[in-house]
Amino acid sequence: MGYYLMGNEVMKSREEITMTATSRPLLIAPIFARTSVQIFQKFIVFSLTAIAAALTYPGCSALPELPDMIDQSWDPPVLKTSRSLDRNTLELTFNRSVNLTRAFFDPPLETLEIRQEDNHLFIRVEERLKPGSEYWIDALIQDDQGNTASILASFYGHNPDIPRVLINEIAVNNSTNNPEFVELRVFEAGNLGGLTLYNGSPRRWTTRKILPEIQAEAEDYVIVHFRPQNIPDEVDEITDKSASGGRRSHPEAWDLWVWDGDGLPTTSGGITLTAHPDGPILDAFLYSNRTYDPACPRRGFGTLAQFEIFQDVVARGGWEIAGAFVVPDDGVDPSPSTATRSINRDRSGINTRSKADWHIVPTRGATPGTPNSEDVFQP
């Protein structure tokens, strides 16, 4: 069961909460925006009836004088970000200073402390947040002007033990027995919980995989399969590397499956690894078979989506470019690759965040789950 926090009193259900009437009538309308944080805002608008009352009964009304009312801000506070700072603390950032009226968590969490600093709210909970697990907060907040807003936002458990992980091998082509995959290489022991691999970029993506809690060791490999058959043999491996079957699974690697995946773009796209959903980029890979066209509004990119993926990754520091602006030529050309002729990072693990780190191996040179081939395809 979840609990609401209403002032200093804990309520067991929403029905037990009695909202205190304000001195001015309220009109509430929900607005939904699909962003990195999903937020439901309920905007508070003073009614014309209240204004009429203020004008008609100026000596008796508890409302402020009309000039004071006009000078006040009637815009509701807006939630900017929600994130966990450590295993027990959530930070909510708003566009102005606010106070928390009540809060409800799913899964249920018990609030121990609420602290306000400027436009930030810090909520400390008793339970340890599980790395990579998704949580929701349903809260009512109020600013200094009395404007209130109801928010519904997600956040993810903090992972303090992220190891060094790089994108290591990619197959963007598909054949009957060799579907697309992205391999990650782990360089040191740590927890992989919450790491997020995007087919695209944090801003513009088609599918993604939020990694479960895996206690990985140095030189472990993780194979993220982007075209599952959705058969019983395909399972996300958390403790046993040999638990999963399925095409291109490996008994000595961690196999994970993008359950709603239908492959990777063949000619142009991006693969992005972040510390958590919408978190900082740990590594990225950009690819395109197109070239710069100064006459094209998209500089030669085939679609707006391809253009935006490149721009997003470069803007976040995930990829280095040669010139002053992003062009398709900044990515690796995947044209010579096939389902078994994969795109490999150099075995040294050097990461310049550019196409200089990558090569295409000869036919049947793909090695998901094992060290990369250093052989280079010769057309």
From TrEMBL:
<protein>
    <recommendedName>
        <fullName>TP-1001-like C-terminal domain-containing protein</fullName>
    </recommendedName>
</protein>
<dbReference type="Pfam" id="PF26342">
    <property type="entry name" value="TP_1001_2nd"/>
</dbReference>
<feature type="compositionally biased region" description="Polar residues">
    <location>
        <begin position="369"/>
        <end position="379"/>
    </location>
</feature>
<feature type="domain" description="TP-1001-like C-terminal">
    <location>
        <begin position="163"/>
        <end position="360"/>
    </location>
</feature>
<feature type="region of interest" description="Disordered">
    <location>
        <begin position="329"/>
        <end position="379"/>
    </location>
</feature>
<dbReference type="InterPro" id="IPR058683">
    <property type="entry name" value="TP_1001-like_C"/>
</dbReference>
<feature type="compositionally biased region" description="Basic and acidic residues">
    <location>
        <begin position="343"/>
        <end position="358"/>
    </location>
</feature>
